[in-house]
Design brief:
This protein is mainly beta and about 325 residues long. Helices cover about 10% and strands about 45% of the residues. The longest helix is centred in the first third of the chain and has 29 residues.
Length: about 325
């Protein structure tokens, strides 16, 4: 067979293969056109969880530490130096104002003086161990400390960046390592007028809303101080917001069980919950789980069984005006 005939045959075969390939490609292209469709034209259905859009209150806060102290506490000093000859109180004992706490002998070798009594300047409880008889003291020596342990307070230091929102009346949750599952509520009663130039903090005093015998002076406290409420906006989990080309989107489930990719505007955020200022309407169903595989028009199946997807309720936070539960804080600050 001539070489020219072989070339003609090969070219014909290749042309046939190309034509068949193009035809098959067009057929499959028509069958599989559209995102999320399987062979045969059936659209893929994605399982998601949803939340019905509603307005809620976000409580911003500061997380810090504090120390429990008596509201009234005073050190007791002698009027004259000398040697303690008697002590009439013990740690934890109650004294009344004017009671004799101890007696000091100011006598020196070769001289004899009457004992000098040391009086309690206030009524309260002995909160520090008194000095023992025989101890030498001067007028600057603290013999003991008297405190009003019936009325305790928490002293906390707040970073300078939050001073603009500090004021009396702010609410706080107090917790202790000794009672890990118990929250004690308190209210800011005093705010220092100055910022400490060394620590760059401002001191606040919080009074407990209710007396509790489990709380002792000197205990280390963890303080969640609520500083600001963000109201009037729809809220949703921050991680359910999708970012594409620097634009923020949420997926809204429509009546035909397809989703619409909706551009949104965010507001303030606290602990993984964000305000939605535009793009979503109250009552619309928002995808909060499973949105990473979705595109505009995707078909979905809501597997929340008619129950709004959970967002942890903010336990023990101040109630909003309607008494509805709000979001639970876990970290410092939260302003976006």
């Amino acid at each position: 067979m001539r070489k020219s005939n072989i070339v003609i045959i090969v070219c014909a075969v290749l042309t046939f293969v190309v034509i068949v390939g193009v035809a098959v490609s067009k057929i499959f292209s028509k069958k599989n056109s559209g995102w999320g469709r399987m062979p045969g034209g059936e659209q893929t259905v994605f399982s998601v969880k949803t939340k019905v859009a509603e307005k809620d209150v976000l409580h911003d806060y500061v997380s810090t530490n504090g120390e429990v102290e008596a509201q009234s506490s005073i050190d007791v000093f002698p009027d004259i130096g000398g040697k303690i000859v008697s002590v009439n109180v013990t740690l934890g004992s109650h004294v009344n104002r004017g009671a004799v706490v101890a007696e000091v002998d100011p006598s020196e070798p070769g001289t004899t003086y009457a004992h000098s009594p040391v009086y309690a300047p206030i009524s309260g409880t002995i909160t520090s161990s008194p000095l023992k008889p025989g101890a030498k003291v001067a007028v600057s020596s603290v013999i003991t400390t008297i405190g009003d342990v019936e009325n305790l307070q928490v002293t906390a230091n707040i970073p300078e960046r939050y001073v603009a929102v500090l004021k009396t009346g702010l609410k706080a949750n107090i917790s202790f390592e000794a009672y890990p599952d118990k929250i004690f509520t308190a209210t800011v009663s005093r705010v220092s007028p100055v910022v400490d130039k060394t620590s760059r903090t401002k001191e606040v005093i919080l009074n407990f809303d209710k007396k509790d015998d489990r709380i002792d002076a000197g205990m280390f406290a963890k303080v969640i101080l609520y500083t600001q409420d963000y109201v009037g906006a729809i809220t949703m989990p921050s991680d359910s917001v999708v970012t594409k080309n620097d634009t923020l989107y949420a997926f809204v489930v429509k009546d035909d069980n397809t989703v619409e990719q909706r551009a949104i505007t965010e507001g303030n955020s606290v602990d993984g919950v964000v305000q939605i200022l535009s793009g979503i309407t109250v009552g619309e169903k928002i995808v909060v789980e499973g949105m990473s595989v979705l595109a505009d028009g995707s078909k979905v199946k809501d597997i929340t069984n008619g129950v709004t997807a959970d967002i942890p309720a903010q336990q023990n936070a101040p109630a909003n005006a309607n008494g509805k539960p709000t979001r639970r804080p876990t970290t410092d600050g939260g302003n976006k």
